[in-house]
Design a protein that fits this description.
single chain, 392 residues, mainly alpha, 12 helices
Length: 392
């Protein structure tokens, strides 16, 4: 019953992720502080989906069985409490102990996650055992490189979690304790790198198309080094620019890989098309980052940058893979179909473009329209996930 247990909890993590996406977009519409927005996006929306799927995918890709099948159940309430406490603590006039409780819960949840997966793959840390069958032997070189990158992403998660805990407790801070450092470690270092690594294993099979190994290697190497330089050198300078270039190269490499797979494949499923759209937003997001590194920084552009990266690149990648894992058409509720899924993606992507344009050009009405559209798209996505899970 272990696989069924893990799958059931993965669906619960996905529902929490979808709920956080809706809360995030509702918060943007009513004007919550930027720190609240980032916390809901990273800790509430992105990581629950990452945790839920990694519990099942990582052991499989390392040719192992999850050492503690109940670990997802143990970590689940801690993830919810941690993300919730951290988000509420960013609001005005909230007691400081909320942040400490949230950070502690989050840290324990990450400890359960990393401890369980680390123990599971302890004799295969390099990922040399890939469980790739003989019929997919040509994919093994990319699979091994992708596997080897997963521990690097987990290292970013560990350091970013310490930075989060230190910012809410009496522990020594990471460097100067500047919150965006933790955000870059977690979002660019952990989530994005896992998207690259697990994506290079998933997407060639989903598309049923080959992926060039040199492109995968270059993307994963750049994606492994870039976030560390970005997080530690946010004040600017040569190394910050090097980090920005490396991260831009990684995201553009991933976007090129998705485009090549899409072109070489005859499959046009809604989830795969969504990942292609997400890759395009990734290119736009790193363009903002390069502007900050080689040009100037403004508050409005920072807001556009974080929304394009967190919702456009990472967020739509999560949505696309969710639609691939949990096809919308299997739901029995009214409107559960691929067409509705496409509407949700159009609302999220179109609304995000309107937001970015409105924020950049100081057109408040356009930005508000975009916020309403992304909230509608998020609600539609959550409805389709719920419909698919009810059917299962």
């Amino acid at each position: 019953m272990a696989p069924e247990t893990i799958s059931r909890w993965a669906r619960r993590y996905a529902l929490v992720s979808a709920a956080a996406l809706c809360l995030w977009q509702a918060g943007v519409l009513v004007g919550v502080p930027r720190r609240t927005e980032v916390t809901l996006a990273v800790y509430g929306f992105l990581f629950p989906m990452v945790f839920g799927k990694a519990y099942s995918l990582v052991p499989t890709y390392f040719d192992r069985t999850l050492a503690v099948p109940r670990a997802p159940a143990v970590g689940f309430p801690l993830v919810v409490a941690g993300a919730g406490g951290l988000a509420v603590a960013t609001l005005r006039e909230t007691p400081p102990w909320l942040g400490a409780v949230g950070a502690l819960a989050w840290t324990v949840a990450v400890g359960v996650f990393l401890g369980t997966l680390g123990w599971t793959v302890r004799y295969n840390l390099s990922g040399g055992d890939t469980a790739t069958g003989a019929h997919n032997a040509a994919r093994r070189p990319v699979d091994r490189v992708a596997n080897a990158t997963v521990p690097v992403a987990f290292s970013y998660l560990l350091v970013g979690t310490y930075a989060t805990l230190a910012s809410h407790t009496g522990l020594p801070p990471l460097l100067d304790g500047y919150p965006p450092r933790a955000t870059h470690l977690l979002a660019a270092g952990a989530v994005a790198l896992l998207v690259f690594a697990l994506g290079f294993r998933l997407l060639p099979r989903f598309f049923s198309a080959p992926l060039p190994r040199p492109l995968a290697v270059a993307t994963l190497l750049a994606g492994s080094a870039g976030p560390a330089l970005l997080a530690t050198r946010l004040s600017g300078g040569l190394w910050f620019r090097v980090g920005a270039l490396l991260e831009a190269g990684a995201v553009c490499g991933f976007a090129l890989a998705v485009a090549l797979l899409f072109r070489r494949s005859t499959r046009r499923r809604v989830g795969l098309s969504t990942v292609l759209v997400a890759a395009g937003f990734g290119v736009l997001g790193v363009a903002f980052g390069l502007w900050f590194a080689f040009g100037s920084v403004s508050a409005t552009l920072v807001t556009a940058h974080l929304r394009v990266n967190l919702l456009g690149f990472l967020g739509l990648t999560v949505v696309g893979l969710a639609y691939q894992f949990y096809p919308p058409a299997v739901g029995n509720l009214p409107g559960a179909s691929d067409r509705t899924a496409r509407v949700s993606v159009l609302a999220l992507a179109g609304g995000l473009l309107a937001q970015a344009g409105g924020v950049t050009l100081s057109l408040s009405s356009l930005a508000t329209l975009g916020q309403a559209l992304t909230l509608g798209g998020a609600l539609c996505y959550a409805y389709l996930l719920g419909a698919a899970f009810l059917t299962r």
